[in-house]
Design goal:
Largest interface: A-B, 26 and 24 residues
Order of helices and strands of chain A: EEEEEEEEEEE
Structural class of chain B: mainly beta
Number of strands of chain A: 11
Order of helices and strands of chain B: EEEEEEEEEEE
Helix content of chain A: under 10%
Shape of chain B: globular
Structural class of chain A: mainly beta
Largest sheet of chain B: 6 strands, mixed
Number of strands of chain B: 11
Shape of chain A: globular
Radius of gyration of chain A: 13 Å
Number of helices of chain A: 0
Helix content of chain B: under 10%
Strand content of chain A: over 45%
Largest sheet of chain A: 7 strands, mixed
Number of helices of chain B: 0
Radius of gyration of chain B: 13 Å
Oligomer: heterodimer
Chain lengths: ~110, ~110
């Protein structure tokens, strides 16, 4: 069990650029979640996949955000036309259906200049 | 917006002392979980307590749940400097997505 991994760990970009983050869940986990965490706050839910199906999206996920999980394994989160307000830690978590515990990756810290 | 709140927001104690942090929530739960986050890192699962349980232990951790008051507490006994971290409670809804509070920042001084 190698745990949840995320890449990159840090990303600095200029306002208006597009960025893409990758999450590799624990191999047997069919549920995958994305959260966003700003400084001093707890994580906020963004979206959730059951296998390759995106089952729920938060209102926080504007149309500049898109997430995919094409083969039900790894997932990508893309932010288009980044804004300074997108600066945050983006966390990925995975779990098995029927088990409530989510296992989190180390996160990708995004800074938009 | 956050669905629960931890209290206190910050706690500073000496090594060896006990640390107690509380979590309140607003709606019904299936279960409540506590996580720890070291600065700039991901979250580590500590303990899960179900809505029909009142108390649970894991090593130096003790969690209580009072569904009538919609609150939970996490007690860390005999704290260590390595316990310095932020602690979050997470409420789970039917889809298992989490609602986190804003956390308690614990500082254990050696």
């Amino acid at each position: 069990d190698t745990g949840v991994s995320q890449d990159p760990r840090h990303k600095i970009t200029k306002r208006g650029q597009n960025v893409t983050f990758r999450c590799d869940p624990i191999s047997e986990h069919n549920r995958l979640y994305w959260y966003r965490q700003t400084l001093g706050q707890g994580p906020e839910f963004l979206t959730y996949f059951q296998n390759e199906a995106q089952l729920e999206k938060s209102r926080l996920l504007s149309d500049r955000f898109s997430a995919e999980r094409p083969k039900g394994s790894f997932s990508t989160l893309e932010i288009q036309r980044t804004e300074q307000g997108d600066s945050a830690m983006y966390l990925c978590a995975s779990s098995e259906t029927g088990y409530e515990t989510q296992y989190f990756g180390p996160g990708t810290r995004l800074l938009v200049l | 917006s956050q669905q629960g709140e931890e209290d206190p927001q910050a706690l500073s104690i000496q090594e060896g002392e006990n640390a107690t942090m509380n979590c309140s929530y607003k709606t019904s739960i299936n279960n409540l979980q506590w996580y720890r986050q070291n600065s700039g890192r991901g979250l580590v699962h500590l303990i899960l307590i179900r809505s029909n349980e009142r108390e649970k232990h894991s090593g130096r951790l003790r969690v209580t749940l009072d569904t009538s008051k919609k609150s939970s507490s996490l007690l860390i006994t005999a704290s260590r400097a390595a316990d310095t971290a932020s602690y979050f409670c997470a409420r789970t809804d039917n889809f298992n997505k989490f609602y986190f509070g804003s956390g308690t920042k614990l500082n254990v001084k050696p």
